[in-house]
Amino acid sequence: MRIGIVGLGKMGLNMTRRLLKGRHKVVGYNRSKKSVNEAVRAGAIGASSLSVLVSKLPAPRVVWLMLPAGLPTEDTIDELKSLLEKGDTIVDGANSNYKDSIRRGMELEPYGIRFMDAGVSGGIWGLKIGYCLMVGGAAGTYRKVLPALKTLAPKNGYLHCGPVGSGHFVKMVHNGIEYGMMSAYGEGFAILRASEEFGDQFDFHKISRLWNQGSVIRSWLLELAESAFNKDPGLETLEPYVPDSGEGRWTVDAAVESGVPAPVITAALFQRFSSRGNGDFSDMLLSALRNEFGGHAVKKKVKKKVMKKKGAKK
Questions:
Q1: pLDDT value at position 314?
Q2: Lesser CB count within 10 Å: N end or C end of the chain?
Q3: 210-243 burial, b for 16+ CB within 10 Å, e for fewer?
Q4: pLDDT in tens, 65-95
């Protein structure tokens, strides 16, 4: 099939390459000409604008967006409303909020434009092993895009989850679970490292590799941990700062709305907040209170001495 890809970042460009390897014809557009040129070198048809991309696609068209969630996706869909025709399809592959996807699907209905939300997992490894695709939309829309899904995903790696919004909802929960798993691994290796008896003897690269050989906690994340420890055994080149894409927050919001207890995912999300120093003042107050009520020792900041340059005026 011929398909348009809008957004040729790491994910979008690799998805383009995988589609081309599957003998699909891809028209690619990105604000950066460099990314478009890379797609063209891989065999895609380049487009200099959204209107040019649409003109190079036969009706009924399929345009797959791989843009940052939020305004970039919103603005692009708004522009496509006036460019696409009845029967065309927009697929949103961003990490969009499922509520936004439901709204967008409803807003496109009067135009006769079909909408499908696709949660995409696989990261930079997707080009080689395929992407896990969690898809929401009407059955007819799903069937229309199915040839591309089969190429992008590994065997059994795609699923029609339900109506519009369901794909991004499943991807949201997927990412929430990911937060919890990553935190558990992080805590486990931190306990190993802190051992007074054995900490300096442990080889984390070997341990993570060992745990992936038949252990009940084996996983792809643990394989990635093995790779990370192989590159940097003590992770000394990294700062303990962990961003979040927003999907962990939405998962916790959904848990609150539905009354489902989710202490692990919630704690993992808050751990990421703490990594950015947002909990520092709270910890300072805890230290101060222990000193106030129990006279416990506190650790005070060491003021840095300011060295005066020679010849400086006193």
A1: 44
A2: C
A3: ebbeeeeeeeebbeebbeebeeeeeeeeeeeebe
A4: 999 999 999 999 999 999 999 999 999 999 9
Q: What is the pTM of this model?
A: 0.88
* Two structure tokens written together for 33: 């000409």
Q: Judging by DSSP bridges, how do beta strands 2-6 and 25-29 pair with one another?
A: parallel
User: Cα separation of 70 and 3, whole Å?
Assistant: 23
Point out the residues that are catalytic: 171, 178
Q: Is 41 helix (H, G, I), strand (E, B) or coil?
A: helix
d(CA 306, CA 283): 27
Cβ partners under 8 Å of residue 213, min gap 6: none
Low-confidence ranges of the chain (pLDDT < 70): 303-314
57 contact partners, CB below 8 Å, separation of at least 6: 2, 3, 4, 27, 63
